[in-house]
Amino acid sequence: MAQHFLLSAEARTLSLKEIYIYKGGEEKAYITFKRMRWQETAGEPVCPVCGCVDSKTVKSRATFRCIACSKQYSVTSGTIFASRKMPFTDLLAAICIFVNAAKGLSSLQFSRDLDCQYKTAFVLSHKLREALAAELANEKLSGEVEIDGAYFGGHIRPANFKAKRIDRRKAQYQNGNRRVVVALREREGRTHTYVTESEAEGLPIAERIANEGTVFYADEAKHWDALHNNLVAYRINHSEAYSYLDGVHTNNVESFFARLRRMVQGQHHHVSRQYLHEYAAHAAWMEDHRRRSNGDNAAALLGGALNHPISRVWAGYWQRRA
C-alpha cells in the first residue's frame, strides 16, 4: 500500500529547528521577509507610497528612506505585520506553528509556544486568519459545487435539577448566539464559507457567486428546493444513502465541517459569533491545502500576509478594549 502523503517526507519541508538553527537567525529571517515582500525586485526595497525603487538604509534601524518622496518605511510597513514588535525569527516560527496545526491552534497554546503574552498570540493568530481568508476575496464558484450548512454556538447549559430543565430546542429559550456556517465547496477546488443566521440564507449567496454552468449538490433540506429555480442542482437524501452511484453526494463539504467541528470543540472550546467567520475560513484553508507541504503552506501564508493591508479590525485591538 502506498504511503499517505501526510506521512511522507514531502509533507514536512519546514520545521522550527530549521528556522532557529539552520536558517541563520534574525538576519536570514529578515532577508526572507524582504524577498517575500518584494518578489518582483528580488528583495530590493520598494517604497509603498510612491513605488520608487531607490532608497537609502537608515543607520541602526531596519528601515529605508525613499529617495523620491523621503518617506521612511520598513519591510512590514502597510502590511498585516505593521507596527510589529516580535523578531522576524519568531514571526516565521509563529507561521510554522500555525500551519502545522492541522485542526487549529488555541491562542493559549500559541502564546506558550512563542513565549509571548496571550493578547499578542490572540491578535497575531487572527491577523493570520484574516490574511489567508483574503485569498478568496471576489472569487467565483465554478464546476461542481457542494453546498451545506452547520450550526455552531448558542449552547444552553441544562439546569441541575430535572424539574427545572427546559426544552432547549424551542425558540423562546434560545440565547441568540447560534449561527450557521454555510459552506460552498468546489470539487477539485476551494471552499467558500459564510456565517449566517439560517441555512436558507445560503441560497442567495450561491446565486451571487456562482459562474454560469456551475452544478450544485445539496441534501434533502427543504430550503434547498429553490436551487432548482435558477441553478442546476442535484439532491441526495441522507435518509436513503450518503452517496448515490452517479456521483451525487455532499461528502466533501461534510469533510470540511468535520474539521471545523474538531477545531471548535477540540481546540478552542468556544468561538464567539463575532469571529466565527475567521475560524471557518481558517478551517477551509487548511482543508483545501491539506495535500500541500507545510513549507509551501508557510510560504503562501507569509506571502499573503505581506501583501495584505493593515488590519482595520485587529490593529490596536486591545488598546480599544482597555
Q: What's the number of structural domains? A: 2
Mean pLDDT: 93
Low-confidence stretches: none
- State the strand order across the main sheet: 6-5-4-7-8
Q: How much of the polypeptide forms β-strand, as a percent range?
A: 5-15%
Shape: globular
The CATH topology of the largest domain corresponds to Nucleotidyltransferase, domain 5
In this structure, how is the largest beta sheet organized? 5 strands, mixed
Number of helices: 11
CATH class of the largest domain: Alpha Beta
Task: Explain this structure.
It is a single chain. By secondary structure, this protein is α/β, with parallel strands linked by helices. It has two domains: 7-38 and 75-135 and 308-320, no CATH class; 139-289, Nucleotidyltransferase, domain 5 (2-Layer Sandwich). 36% of the residues lie in helices and 13% in strands. The protein contains eleven helices and eight strands. The strands form two sheets. The chain has a five-stranded mixed beta sheet with strand order 6-5-4-7-8, sandwiched between helices. Helix 5 (118-133) crosses helix 9. The longest helix is centred in the last third of the chain and has 18 residues, at 251-268. It is globular. The termini are far apart. The model has no long low-confidence stretch (mean pLDDT 93).
